[in-house]
Amino acid sequence: MLFLLVTMIGCRSGAGASAGARADAGADADVQGDAHAEGDAKADADAKADADASTRTSTRELPSVATEWCTEGMLGLDEDVCYVMPVGATRLLVYLHGIVPPLKDSVQKQTVQGAVIKAATRAGAAAIVPRGRRGIGPDGARDWWAWPTSPATHAQLVREIVARWVVMKKKLETIAGKPFEKTYLAGSSNGAYFLSALALRGDCDELGFPIDGYGAMSGGAPGGRGADALKGRTSHPVYVGFGTYDAETKTGARALAAVFGAVHWPVRIAEHPFGHGAREVYLDEAFTFWAE
Asked: 83: closest CA among 211, 193, 209, 174?
């Protein structure tokens, strides 16, 4: 009963949020020889750097900050951010959780981080799961970890939230030994509604955290915004996944996909026989779609 209540709270939060929103060379042989030598040295250095990075990830000798936010299988990038980094990862996923109770252990946290670990590992992508804020959750879960979904809290918090992601991405790239080639943003439930606003407003691109693909899963809605909000923007692939038995989010998810589709952004809609919540299959499909 408690899990059902939590699930329904998350759904009502997203639905309310979308309603409230209505309401990212040389001249001679010697010189040429020196140039080649320098080039060879640089190539050797680059190869060594790649090998060092691969060794760090392959032996799992990765740094981890002690934090109660991370479940088994994830490492602490900071007190409020968990990560996973498979060997040779060149892409980064930032995943936004739904509402999570402020407890060391919870079904919500285990479900989200478990799905991210497995899907990101299969895709060979690095992933981070940053923590939301307390005090902005829906009625009945006000003090849970959540993302801003009303226009007022979005405007108040979006800059510092995205700035935090910028810092964490750079920290993870330092561990990896090189920059990530692509960055994706996905989220479920409450996280999907915040993601919808970020994608439609272009906040991440504007705030120095460019996104190469979005994924709204088990949640998301236009929040009163139409295709005009996307005019003049560079298109990015948008994956929208939802459950057949998640009646409260299906309508908003379809409407969100329609807004992006109206201006010819690449969109994939996927419906699966699930109820509400994060699922590995959504991420599996999203990674494939983004790579296309």
From this structure: 174
